[in-house]
Amino acid sequence: MSDPSPPTSDHDITPVTIEEEMKRSYLDYAMSVIVARALPDVRDGLKPVHRRILYAMKEAGYDWNRPYRKSARVVGDVMGQYHPHGDSAIYDTMVRMAQYFSMRLQLIDGQGNFGSMDGDPPAAMRYTEARLTRAASDSLLDDIDEDTVDFQDNYDESTKEPVVLPARFPNLLVNGAGGIAVGMATNIPPHNLGEVIDGCLAYIDQPDISIDGLMQHIPGPDFPTGGIILGRSGIRDAYHTGRGSLRVRAKTEVEEIRKDRMAIVVTEVPYQVNKARMLERIADLVRAKTIEGIADLRDESDRQGLRVVIELRRDAEADVVLNQLFRHSQLQGSFGCNILALNGGRPEVLDLRAIIAAFIDFRQEVVTRRTAFRLGKARDRAHLLVGLAIAVANIDPVIALIRAAPDPVAAREGLMGRRWPALDVAPLIALIDEPGRVVEEDGTYSLSEAQARAILELRLQRLTGLEREKIAAELEEIAGEIKDYLEILSSRDRLMSILREELSDMKTRFATPRRTEISDHGFDQEDEDLIQREDMVVTVSHGGYIKRVPLSTYRAQRRGGKGRSGMATRDEDFVSQVFVCNTHTPVLFFSSRGMVYKLKVYRLPVGTPQARGKALINLLPLAEGEVISTFMPMPEDETTWDQMYVVFATSDGSVRRNKLSDFVRVMANGKIAMKLEGGDSELVAVRPCAQDDDILLATAGGRCIRFSVSDLRVFAGRTSTGVRGIKLGKGDKVISMTILRSGEAESTEERDAYRRYAAARRRGENGDSEASSEGGIELSQARLGELAESEQFILSVADDGYGKRTSAYEYRLTGRGGRGIGNMDLTRHSGRESGVIAAFPVAPSDQIMLVTDGGKLIRSPVADIRIAGRTTRGVMLFRIDESERIVSVAHLAEEETDDDEAAPEGGAPEDGVTESAGPEDAGEDGPEVS
Known about the structure:
Strand content: 15-25%
Helix content: 25-40%
Active site: 127
Domain Topo IIA-type catalytic: 39-536
Main location: cytoplasm
Organism: Pelagibius litoralis
CATH architecture of the largest domain: 6 Propeller
CATH topology of the largest domain: Neuraminidase
Shape: elongated
Radius of gyration: 47 Å
Subunit structure: Heterotetramer, composed of two GyrA and two GyrB chains. In the heterotetramer, GyrA contains the active site tyrosine that forms a transient covalent intermediate with DNA, while GyrB binds cofactors and catalyzes ATP hydrolysis.
Distance between the termini: 130 Å
CATH superfamily of the largest domain: DNA gyrase/topoisomerase IV, subunit A, C-terminal
Number of domains: 5
């Protein structure tokens, strides 16, 4: 059996690599999707499917003033003539153009179920009906039959369809667009029609207007569902670059729905948010306890508008719950602008000015083509009227010629072959300006075939006087129209005037008030807005663990109660610092490396009273060997920090004073607080101070210096190494800094007098004012009482276990930068070297904890430590082995045990902890005088 296929020759076959074929085929497919499906045209703002639906409805006569027609009939017309794709795609597009919550200016007037904001699907197309809205008919499709736009063949070349619609307003901006093509996507927000037209008018008046100038008329998108746009930065980015992100928030109100019961009422939601899904999400968040304080949730939306009621619990704060909803639910979201459209048939990212410029250029072309079309129609009509006017003016010869003609053809040829006097019609003939159709020099005019036919078809009633006047009047009217059209085509000012009139008419007829509010405050919501204000007990352990516990957890007890546990600690750890503050209180953490970190209290780990907490190294980006030397809770109002000062002290003797406002902005990875010189230098302490305070620096070598804060200027920078606070001896270093109140004594003599009095009183000698007068001034008993109330005591502890309390009056005020004075006798004792490990102010009710490098701890009340002179060694605080050294001394919080457990009487102490021993128990005092 022979092969029925025709034979092929080698020259009919062209080898193509599969890579080239795939590349070419995919590129053809991509361009087809981009141009013919996914992207709107900048001129009318429509994709092909939208354009075909509107044009098919216009052609079928489904105008706004006609009865509704079945949606299935519209879909069938579109699919059968223009859009050979699935009916569901056409119907879905048609439905969206009829939804008030999707389109800022509806283009289709639907009757029936066209879906809802809850995501409910529309009814089937056989149940719904539709017709064009007046805006679509009068604005997008008007003048389409006057050669205003180009037409192209449909898919089977059986009819024509418009390439673009002659839109009278920038529909791309007014209704926006969204689509995904191949390798690109578009997402254009809708705008307010009146504002967009105002921008177009401003561009017509000032073609070189800037984008910022246009934004005076078009402040931002206007979503059909309303809502609030937070800030203008995203709008500026979108209008200037074509890309930007808008933060959109629902519009809410707080109402009292019942007595003492408040509710958050949502009246507008962000654009394209599914309301039912949003409510489900909120309910899930409430069940998961991500959002707390919500008692009930219900949708009360009706035909009057949207209304979602979020009922709150009695103890909930509406602002806190609302901020949590904004953070976690669709009550707040973002709209990513990507203004990509076809401009000249090519995809292009457009800014605001480019869109308006492209539309104005398009409208100029439309008006020009429409005017030229109407001019042609007017000339055609005028041409016929000229023939009738000539026939009427020469009626007798015309009738005679027609009567003499044997047939109509001969009559027509006879009319065309004779020259007729033009008479008064000559000016109109010149105005028509037809090629070859002019009045000769002798004033005669040759009729055309069309004019001859019109004369032959002239009814006898047109020969009456009234009808002749009508012909003349129509000729005059047509002449005026032709003149007007010619003026439009020759004058740009006149053309722009028509554009202005048509745009203004669109605004008057179809513009509505703005629905979306634009907030100038921007998106300034912080995490703390989601946190309810509550007092917290912050606990820090010696080993570097921190936590917060609600103050309400610690219930009030009567005096003498057992208390309760504040933190579960290991044997070698203990609570070193406790302070009560609000969840919104900022805390500054200064480290030994000179860094500062900042956390709000709500960011600290929350725990139970028995919990250990979380290690600081897991909260802050601390380097190896870096420890936090200072915890500083600060005022919540950071505007007050400018009137506050802090003093820094380093181990090499440098000091620096800064305004606290220098540390308002601290990044997550910290900020350099003080520059340290040398590898061994460390930041010892940071303390808040006032202008009239004094600074006391103590060194490991037993020296100290006291000078006024006013001697230390305020530094402007943070990275400075500061100035010298104390001149150190070889191998010495600063181990502490204390801020002392100044002004306890008004003079050196008064300070010395009180010191003598206090020493005598402690020795049990004369405790009256006479003791103060030895070798100096005499103080009254009242003044001595005042000085006693303001007296401060400095606790100094050596690493060999000795320590003492000394009155701050013992430390005289000197100039900054000197070698200082003696603070503690460090002469050899028991044959070993020693050094000062701590020096800080204490109160008689305080307690201290001493820790050795061998892991032993002792807790002692400060009241048991002897008050001694500045240069004494003190008493034994902690009896330790020869090989041990005290490595840390810390203040302690009040002894805390669980209120449900009784402390065992006479029980053995914990491992590694020695019970408190006072000076009498130690049995060994140091020398009173150095």
